[in-house]
Design brief:
9 strands; mainly beta; five-stranded antiparallel sheet; Jelly Rolls; 1 helix; four-stranded antiparallel sheet; globular
Length: 104
């Protein structure tokens, strides 16, 4: 079974833009939507039936999986296998701009 994986945007990928990050995720087979989350936003523990990839363009999104804590910042992508129980929250006072990828 695939494992949770964190990837960071690399300088060799070129300047980070919404379009570049979205295209990279689409190339990997994800359907991608853009979301913004205000400070204080919390997603209680849940899971998805599909493989997911959460990417951040602005702000800090904290994703907690059991004892693991990932603070996603600009250019970070977190890959979650189907059925991974997790929670998420916006950290700090900055709105999070996020790309939400789903493999159907």
């Amino acid at each position: 079974m695939p494992e949770v994986r964190l990837e960071k945007w690399q300088p060799l990928d070129g300047p980070l833009t919404e379009r570049r990050l979205m295209r990279a995720m689409e190339f990997e087979g994800y359907s991608v939507l853009l979301y913004t989350y205000r400070p204080g936003t919390v997603f209680l523990e849940h899971q998805h039936a599909q493989e997911k990839c959460d990417a951040v363009l602005e702000g800090v999104l904290r994703v907690t999986i059991g004892e693991q804590v990932f603070d996603l910042t600009k250019g970070d992508r977190l890959y979650l296998p189907p059925g991974t129980r997790h929670e998420a929250r916006v950290v700090g006072e900055k709105t999070v701009v996020s790309l939400d990828g789903t493999k159907w």
